[in-house]
Design brief:
2-enoyl-CoA Hydratase, Chain A, domain 1, alpha/beta, 6-stranded mixed sheet, single chain, 2 domains, 9 strands, catalytic activity, ClpP/crotonase-like_dom_sf, Enoyl-CoA hydratase/isomerase family protein, Enoyl-CoA_Hydratase/Isomerase, 3-stranded mixed sheet
C-alpha cells in the first residue's frame, strides 16, 4: 500500500482502486503500478468487479518520468528492463483480471491513462474527459501504449491517435472504441456506481464466466467459441444447483 494509490475491498464485493496523486495529474509511478499489481494478484475470491478511478480533476495524465538522466550510459536491455517491461507487465495484469474491470474517467487520460481506460471492460467517462497519446511530441515511440490499444480499436483509429497526437473528447473516444459509456460530468459517479452495483449483484461464477469469454473468444475460431460458450454457461449455471 502507498499513499499514491488507495486500494480497498468494499462490503459489496467490489475492489476499489483510486489513483491519488491529484497535484501531479495522477501520473502513474512505478510504486503505484506495483501496488495495483500486488492488490490484483491477491484478489479476494468473492470479488465481483474491480473499479479504478482517480482523485482530483484528471484520471491519469501519463506515466511519471522513467527515462534515465541525460548522459546516462545504458544498453537496450537495460532500457527494456527499466522502461518497457514494467509497464507492459502492468498492462498484462489489467488484461488478465479474472473479473470485470470498470474505470471512471474524468479530465485527462493521456498515455498510460488512455491505455488503462481502454483496457477496462466498461470505461465510464464524463463528457468533458479528454483522451490523448502525446508521446511523439517528445520524440518517444509510444509502442507500449499502442500494444495496449492494438486489439481495442481499429488500426486507423490507433494511427490517428498516435501520429496526430490530438486529444479527442469523450464522444469521439466512444466512437473510436476507446471507452464504452459517456455521461454528463455531474452524473459520472452515479452512473459508475449503477454499473458496478449491477455487477456486484451477480454471482462470482457468472461474472468470471463472462470475463473469461470476453478475454478468450476473440482469439478462437467459431467452432471453438461455440464449445467455449456452452462450457462456460454450463459451469456458471451449475453453481445454482450445487
Amino acid at each position: 500500500m502507498t499513499e499514491e494509490v488507495s486500494i480497498s475491498q468494499r462490503d459489496d464485493h467490489v475492489l476499489e482502486i483510486e489513483l491519488n496523486r491529484p497535484e501531479q495529474g495522477n501520473a502513474l509511478t512505478p510504486v503505484m503500478a506495483d501496488a495495483i499489481t500486488a492488490g490484483l494478484r491477491v484478489l479476494d475470491p468473492e470479488t465481483r468487479v474491480v473499479l479504478i478511478k482517480a482523485a482530483g480533476a484528471d484520471f491519469c495524465t501519463g506515466r511519471s518520468a522513467a527515462m534515465p538522466a541525460a548522459g546516462t550510459r545504458a544498453t537496450a536491455l537495460d532500457l527494456r528492463r527499466r522502461i518497457s517491461d514494467p509497464v507492459l507487465d502492468f498492462y498484462q495484469t489489467l488484461r488478465e483480471m479474472p473479473v470485470p474491470f470498470v474505470t471512471q474517467v474524468r479530465g485527462s487520460a493521456n498515455g498510460v491513462g488512455c491505455a488503462i481506460a481502454a483496457l477496462a471492460d466498461v470505461a465510464v467517462a464524463a463528457d468533458t474527459a479528454r483522451f490523448q497519446v502525446p508521446e511523439m511530441n517528445h520524440d518517444i515511440a509510444p509502442t507500449l501504449v499502442m500494444n495496449a490499444l492494438a486489439d481495442r480499436i481499429p488500426r486507423a483509429a490507433l494511427a490517428r491517435l498516435v501520429l496526430t497526437r490530438d486529444a479527442v473528447d469523450a464522444a469521439e473516444a466512444k466512437t473510436l472504441g476507446l471507452i464504452g459509456v459517456v455521461v454528463a460530468d455531474e452524473a459520472l459517479g452515479a452512473e459508475t456506481e449503477r454499473i458496478v452495483g449491477q455487477l456486484a449483484m451477480n454471482s462470482v461464477a457468472t461474472v468470471r464466466a463472462v470475463k473469461a469469454f470476453l478475454s478468450t473468444a476473440p482469439e478462437t475460431s467459431f467452432a471453438a467459441r461455440k464449445e467455449l460458450a456452452a462450457l462456460m454457461n454450463s459451469v456458471a449455471t451449475a453453481e445454482r444447483f450445487r
